[in-house]
Amino acid sequence: MSWLDALEVAPEVAAELPDAGEVTAYLRGSAKPRVAEVLAQAEREDRTLIQPRCGVGGHQEMLALLRALEDGARPGVLTVTIDSYTRLARFAAARRLLEADPSRLNGYPLVAHGWRRGRELDRAVAVPLEIRHGSPDTQDLFAVAVASGITSFEGGGIAYNLPYSKDVPLTRSLRGWQNVDAACGELARDGVIVDRELFGTLTAVLVPPSISLAVTLLEAVSAARQGVRCISVAYPQGGEAHQDIAALRSIRELAHRYLPASVRVYPVLHQFMGVFPRHPAAAGALIRYGGLVARLGRATKVINKTDQEAVGIPDAAANIRGVRTVARGLADAAGPVPLDESRVGEEMYWMQREVDELVGPVLEGDCLPDDIAAAFRAGTLDIPFSASGHARSAVLPKRDAHGAIRYLDAGGLPFSAPTLRFHARRLAGQPRERDLIESLSADINYFLTTDVRSAAGIVRPRTRRTTVSAHPRHM
Fold first, then answer.
1. Nearest Cα residue to 376 out of 58, 197, 163
2. Is 341 a catalytic residue?
3. What transmembrane ranges does the database entry give (predicted)?
């Protein structure tokens, strides 16, 4: 069976694709490093890669953007962000808008442009590309991306459904993504490793770390069972340094516990995805802080934000500034950084315990897609503030006095009594707002009212407190 046979591709899309064997030969014969190879080299050299987001509708404009970012920022990986029509498989609508006015598209319509232009994008820069999108069922897009020579593909059946779609059944999205992972398995058997990045960011609104880690872990288990050999687990920066560092460091430990040794796993930090400061200096401080957290958390890659985050889609210059600001944050870890390792260790213990309590019952079943869907129906898996009718969204998060995200109400999550008591203790003594909306709004707008340095708890200029190594060993 070829990698293309593993997919259910629409006939009109399949008719435009090259032969599966030609694609495999093209990928194997390319001298360009694949994303999996770049990640492995970064880990060997104890470096953290930086990757900006980018995507525009026009082909020449996309080529120019990629070249500008490579020349001006020297990122480790570059992104092709896909437009909303293509994400929803509305390829004809994307093609009409591409012909009429490509500037109205909010990303690159790869299926409409076709795999030949996709290869032009890939050959235009020396660094490898990754596809970012948001599709609940993405088999057509994946086929065109692979034919384009692109070797990293983000998403999963939970994380690219429940945060984005109102009424796509989980069993449908999970089985579609199973096919994508099976295609990656076939490619791996033919010597081509595709990196599968899992989107732990979810709704990006006060996501408790254990929910992010549990969702990506279940998607990783599913991917590994289909033969995927390289998995990047992306975690969303919540805002409190010790908790975020603990989550990033937990990724490898959880992978060792639940995944086969043949699967390479790389932690990735998505810089803060919540409400961003409008003032460039404040935004820059938050971006730099994210770089520091990524390094101390031993992330292999960080997806950067820009100082234009609060005002619109960033231009190339802002993205270049963002990459350089992250690089300064990574370098900050080489200096004296006061970090309470006992707090990090405590956070790791509890969030890993929570993940075990969430995924353990699901993995006891016989059919993972059905068991995941059943758990979401029952509320024993859940995502706060989901757009989907297939998640209960009964979980209520809240920041504690340090800014860490806790469970104010765990809904139907199957947490033990000690776990629930831990969160209750962390929230004890918090001032009570006038109503729930006020409380949630304050937590969501955290970095509009809280100075980055005080929120971090570890970013204090001119301090001489206890230091940690600039290059901590991987766990």
1. 163
2. no
3. none
Alpha-carbon separation of residue 24 from 78, 155, 188, 189, 190 (angstroms): 22, 22, 10, 11, 7
If we measure between CA atoms, which residue out of 182, 258, 257 comes closest to residue 220?
258
5, 166, 178, 280 from 368: Cα distances, Å: 22, 22, 10, 45
Q: Provide the whole-model pTM.
A: 0.94
Closest by CA position to 199, among listed 212, 180, 186: 212
Q: Which of 37-41, 160-164, 334-338, 396-400 has the lowest mean pLDDT?
A: 334-338
Strands lying side by side in the sheet with 301-303: 49-51, 301-303, 264-270, 230-236, 195-199, 152-154, 129-132, 78-81
87 is catalytic: yes
φ, ψ at 178 (rounded to 5°) = -60, -40
Could you tell me the CA-to-CA distances from 230 to 34, 36, 245, 250 in Å, in that order?
11, 6, 22, 17
In the structure, how many helices (H) and strands (E) does the chain have? 20, 10
Query: Among 110-114, 180-184, 308-312, whose mean pLDDT is lowest?
Result: 308-312
Q: Given the residues 34, 53, 87, 399, select the one marked as catalytic.
A: 87
Of the candidates 317, 241, 329, 244, the residue with the CA atom closest to the CA atom of residue 284? 329
Extract the runs of DSSP E, i.e. beta strands, from 185-328: 195-199, 230-236, 264-270, 301-303
Active-site residue identified among 154, 186, 240, 309: 154
Contacts 24+ apart (CB under 8 A), 25-28: 26/119, 26/149, 27/146, 27/149, 27/151, 27/187, 27/192, 28/190, 28/191, 28/192
